[in-house]
Amino acid sequence: MPLTNPFEGDSIDWRFPMNSAIGATDAPPGLVSAFEAVGRDLQYLRYGRDVDLSPLHWTLRIDEHYFVSIGWVAVGKIKGGFGGFERGEDMPFDASAAEATVWIADLTQTELAGYEDIQWPSRGWQLLLPRLIDGVAMWVDPHGDVPVAAIGELGATA
């Protein structure tokens, strides 16, 4: 069920648990699928400070111009002062699941690495990069552009 935000004009807002299946919702299915895939991968190949992500919920906002922003917010207490964020880009609300997955993975990776000192997903010294390859959202090793795993299936290779 969407949350309405009376302070931001006309927008529709949703919150979803970060580390579990989202289930039935009226949010755009491509974006829901993307949140689920990225959420599944967050527990693998994560290096840096130890933080429990379970109190975090994804946030999704679509405004009256169909501008999409995503982020996360703490729903409970988080050890170590882990912060929330919200960012919007030029991602259409009706993007394919694969496009949305790459977008959400990229924003999440940037947020973790840039502000929380967490390298994710990382194999050694190099971050894997989210890329769209033949219509599939993939984690790619930038040394040689080698696909490692579909986003959402990182656990099978970790």
From TrEMBL:
<protein>
    <submittedName>
        <fullName>Uncharacterized protein</fullName>
    </submittedName>
</protein>
